[in-house]
Write a structure and sequence with these properties.
- The protein is an alpha/beta fold.
- The protein folds into 3 domains: 186 residues, FAD/NAD(P)-binding domain (3-Layer(bba) Sandwich); 138 residues, D-Amino Acid Oxidase, subunit A, domain 2 (D-Amino Acid Oxidase, Chain A, domain 2); 46 residues, no CATH class.
- It contains 11 helices and 18 strands.
- Strands 1, 2, 8, 9, 10, 11, 17 and 18 form an 8-stranded mixed beta sheet that branches.
- Helix 1 runs parallel beside helix 7, helix 2 packs parallel to helix 7 and helix 7 packs antiparallel against helix 8.
- The radius of gyration is 21 Å and the shape is globular.
- The termini are far apart.
- The model has no long low-confidence stretch (mean pLDDT 94).
Length: 386
């Protein structure tokens, strides 16, 4: 049995980031990933902001595919609200490469990487976790970090709270398309993607390749596949996707609704495992990295003080809640309002938002990572939105 200071379950970007941050402080760390290859399968729309590169300190070259300056939001009856356009608001990235570069960086810092191993059991024995994997590996750690996704086995085994809601997503990488490379196309409506939205993201500077997809809420009677098939039949999408070639399919689950407890004795949850995801967009990379920073700092403090109790690790909960918890909770409230809007009301509000003065406010204050920054100035201008 090999002994480690920290074992990170899950080799995605958040798990890899946390492992690297702890390893650089000269503690022994192992990342255990169930899949055969880091970064696969891809289950993300791959749209992030510059902040992600500032946090990870990764080079953009080879990862960033395209720069996005705005969005065209299509109402159920295809009335279009165009926002942005003045500067770069988001980056389309190669998620496979992004994940791999983070893991490479954590390896260089000293972390061990164990792929194609699923953790079958974890037991806290005398304040140390004993782990067994599907490939008959046995190891122990002082701190266990669960970064193992929406249906986290770590969360389940530790009997920690579950997310409030799950979104089911489906998508594809496409080529031979005709897109405006500066703009994301967003489509809303209960007949398009009940409880969420659909998207088309241009992934090169010519607008000839893209990433398309949608999510539906768990109350949806019909499957995501049912709505996705309409992508290639609906007149609204035809001008963008006519004659396109599907290169690769994408699918995944998004957990929403942060957990009231993300720690236990000798254990921490982070990223999708802790539902640290933006409810307005389903994006988990930026909030996961922010929480990952607090996770690694708390783990390092715990190791330095040789105190791995829940009493010390609860500091992590306080730190991430203070940093980004308000934003995620506010986003959940906004999402609940949005989910209950009829198609008729969505049409109505998109028309009202087409006012040039309102668009100016959106362009000035809109922030993909912190959408709540827009609420106050928007409501001040159009109080009837309350």
């Amino acid at each position: 049995m090999k002994n480690y200071d920290v074992a990170v379950i899950g080799g995605g970007p958040i798990g890899g980031f946390v492992a690297g941050k702890i390893a650089e402080k000269r503690f022994s760390v192992i990342v255990i990933e169930k899949n055969k290859k880091i970064g696969l399968p891809v289950n993300c729309a791959g749209l992030v902001t510059q902040r992600v590169f500032e946090l990870t300190n990764l080079p953009k070259k080879g990862i960033v595919q395209n720069e996005i300056k705005g969005a065209n939001i299509h109402s159920p009856s295809n009335k279009i609200l165009t926002i942005g356009g003045d500067k770069v608001h988001a980056l389309s990235i190669d998620r496979e490469r992004f994940d791999q570069e983070i893991i490479k960086k954590s390896e260089k810092k000293g972390a061990d990487i164990l792929i194609e191993n699923k953790v079958l059991s974890m037991k806290n024995v005398n304040k140390t976790f004993k782990l067994k994997t599907s490939e008959q590996k046995e190891l122990s750690c002082k701190i266990l970090i669960g970064a193992d996704g929406p249906y986290s086995k770590t969360r389940e085994m530790l009997s920690l709270p579950t997310p409030k809601e799950y979104l089911k997503g489906i998508g594809a990488e496409v080529s031979d398309v005709n897109l405006n490379p500066d703009y994301v196309e967003i489509f809303v409506g209960k007949k398009i993607a009940p409880g969420f939205f659909a998207w088309i993201i241009p992934t090169n500077k010519k607008g000839t390749t893209g990433r398309i997809g949608l999510c539906v809420n768990q109350k949806s009677i019909k499957s995501p596949k049912h709505y996705f098939s309409k992508f290639f039949k609906n007149d609204i999408y035809e001008e963008y996707l006519k004659g396109c070639t599907v290169e690769k399919n994408i699918g995944g689950v998004i957990p929403l609704g942060t957990l009231k407890k993300t720690y236990s004795d000798n254990a921490i949850l982070v990223g999708d495992a802790a539902a640290q995801v933006k409810p307005t967009s389903g994006g988990g990379i930026y909030p996961g990295l922010v929480c990952g920073m607090h996770c690694s700092n708390t783990a390092v403090e715990s190791l330095q003080k040789k105190d791995h109790s829940g009493n010390l690790l609860k500091k992590y909960q306080k730190l991430w809640e203070k940093d980004i918890g308000y934003e995620l909770k506010r986003g959940m409230k906004f999402r609940n309002i949005y989910s209950n809007l009829s198609d008729k009301k969505l049409d109505k509000y998109i028309v009202k938002l087409q006012n040039p003065k309102i668009i100016e406010i959106i362009n000035k204050h809109g922030d993909i990572d912190y959408p709540s920054k827009l609420f106050k100035p928007l409501i001040k201008k159009i109080p009837y939105l309350i």
